[in-house]
Design a protein that fits this description.
The chain is an alpha+beta fold. It folds into two domains: about 5-45, no CATH class; about 55-340, (Glycosyl)asparaginase (Glutamine Phosphoribosylpyrophosphate, subunit 1, domain 1). It has helices at about 5-15, 20-30, 40-50, 65-75, 80-90, 135-145, 155-165, 175-185, 255-260, 260-270, 275-290; strands spanning about 55-60, 115-120, 125-130, 150-155, 200-205, 210-220, 240, 245-250, 300-305, 310-315, 320-325, 330-335, 335. Helix 10 packs across helix 11 (about 275-290). The protein binds aspartic acid.
């Protein structure tokens, strides 16, 4: 049986959601020239997948963020509009010490923010180490939509923000300044697992059209070196979307996510037929199998596929994922790798 016939057959046979195995079979078949025909794979996927009702998921227990995104999605907003508004809830939340205004500074007392976004067309935008701007995910969207570039960093990103009408705001609050002064007494840089129990916000959404978008926004690790950038604004590491397959987003020790390009890995594993849950588990395994160092840091991934299945997995107990669908906004405890030490 030639490959196209096989795909047509599987599309006809697959009423409802295709099994991972059949999609994997499609993916592994190659053309007469030996190249994998991704268009045929995508077509087979599209024909087999039922559109779910809109969903928004995000890292940690940021219920206000998924509620906001969910309300917009239910009202017919695009996935991209919904996630930008959703993550803005946390960027503007002064109590959140790891995102937006009120975030923890670097070791020199400067609050610098990182963010990225990705749309269903596969375009992306990111800003790195930006000061004085609260809504950096919206700024990353502007980079994606209004410039010929993907990434703007530091002063350039800040100046671009003002050109785009963003207002200058002081991000370091008195409370965070006092905590930083306290920290300076020892200057002990030691990120602690789940210590604040809320962290970077990464969000994925699927809208009424079945299109997926994502965003990730953070101040990075508290008391980081000046100029340090983590995984969160790096496409493929902190976030990756492929609208034919699904999306993934990360939180936790960014250096380790960067070394394994975690979010891209998860999307590629889903492309080859893995569920979002199994793909998140494999991405965590790529980190933990490197040796015992994982005992000292937390990493968590969340993922969603085109048919609306979601998954999450982390190294240590304590990570949760918010999920909004059909007016239900739930905080779901994630499965975790380290059952011995957690
Ligand atoms: N991943 C972020 C970073 O390394 C921090 C976090 O999610 O806690 O910058």
């Amino acid at each position: 049986m030639n490959r196209r016939k096989f795909i047509n057959k599987s599309a006809v046979a697959g009423a409802g959601i295709a099994t991972g195995a059949s999609l994997m079979a499609c993916n592994n078949l190659s053309t007469s020239t030996g190249d994998v025909d991704n268009n045929a794979f995508a077509k087979a996927q599209k024909e087999n997948i039922k559109k779910p009702s809109p969903i928004a998921i995000c890292t940690w227990g940021f219920s206000g963020a998924t509620a906001k995104a969910g309300e917009l999605l239910d009202g017919g907003s695009s996935a991209l509009d919904a996630i930008i508004a959703g993550v803005a809830v946390e960027e503007e939340n002064i109590e959140n010490t790891t995102v937006g205004i009120g975030a923890t500074p670097d070791r020199e007392g400067n609050v610098t923010l990182d963010a990225c976004v990705m749309n269903p067309e596969g375009d992306c935008g990111a800003v790195l180490a930006v000061e004085n701007i609260v809504n950096v995910a919206a700024l990353a969207r502007k980079v994606m939509e209004e410039t010929p570039h993907v990434i703007l960093a530091g002063k350039g990103a800040e100046e671009f923000a003002y050109e785009q009408g963003f207002t200058k705001q002081k991000l370091l609050t008195e409370e965070r300044k006092e905590a930083w002064k306290e920290w300076l007494k020892t200057s002990d840089y030691k990120p602690e697992i789940n210590i604040e129990n809320h962290d970077t916000i990464g969000m994925l959404a699927i809208d009424n059209n079945g299109d997926i978008a994502g965003a990730c926004t953070t101040s990075g690790l508290g008391y980081k070196m000046k100029g340090r950038v983590g995984d969160s604004p790096i496409i493929g590491s902190g976030l990756f979307i492929d609208n034919e397959v699904g999306g993934a987003v990360a939180t936790g020790m960014g250096e380790e996510v960067l070394k394994t390009v975690g979010s891209f890995l998860i999307v590629e594993l889903m492309r080859s037929g893995m569920s979002p849950q199994a793909a998140c588990e494999e991405a965590i395994h790529r980190i933990t199998k490197k040796g015992a160092r994982y005992k000292d840091f937390q990493i968590a991934y969340i993922a969603m596929n085109k048919s609306g299945e979601t998954g999450s997995h982390c190294i240590h107990k304590g990570f949760t994922m918010m999920k909004y669908q059909n007016k239900k906004n739930e905080n779901i405890s994630s499965s975790f790798y380290d059952t011995k030490n957690s």
